[in-house]
Amino acid sequence: MSESGGVAVSETSSARDETRVRIVAIAAELVARGGRDALTTRAVAAAAGVQAPTIYRLFGDKNGLLDAVAEHGFAAYLGKKKLPGLSGDPVEELRAGWDLHVGFGLANPALFSLMYGDPRPGVRSPAAVTAFRILQERIRRIAAAGRLRVSEQKAADLVHAAGSGTVLTLLAMPEDRRDPGLSEAAREAVIVAITTDSPTLENPGPAAAAIALRAVLPDAAALTAGERHLLEELLDRLATSRPS
Known about the structure:
Arc Repressor Mutant, subunit A, 2 domains, disordered N terminus, 244 residues, mainly alpha
């Protein structure tokens, strides 16, 4: 009895997963053809051959479905393009990451709009969270190399704002009028604002030293979790301090 019950549960779960995948694929096609406005619960349900309550049960609401579509599209793009590997120069890695971000946006305007074009205060789609985590990892490598002139958080926020703004600006232009140099110019302006040409620790001040130490603090196995948390707070204060 228990075995047959277990099989039934497994089959139900498998069927639910297959239905979810099919709905996301169909929703992605609707978004690609007509933008987010083309994605209605009725249209998705009809195309997928399911009832509207099935969509709400699987995704919660329309925003949940939109998030799933964006996450699926972003993962597929990264799978095809492959995230730039570690080159040894963390600033070059950041450049490659910027170009990947812009390339994704221009190649997938509807998906990019789902991720960044309709911000909800305090809420980020899973795809946007993944993208920002990748960015934070790149910024942390620059900080660990002693080449970050601002705090990690400020650097990540600035790169994110400038990169996403660049994509949205280019998407608003007619394709034949897009300036291919705009992205490069914006990228280099941001890099100049947040990095140094040589490690700041060659001539360290409290803020520069704090930024570099903060980046490698997760590797400090000698500290307890509480000690690490306290030191993180102190280093964050030093990293944003101004010379007297």
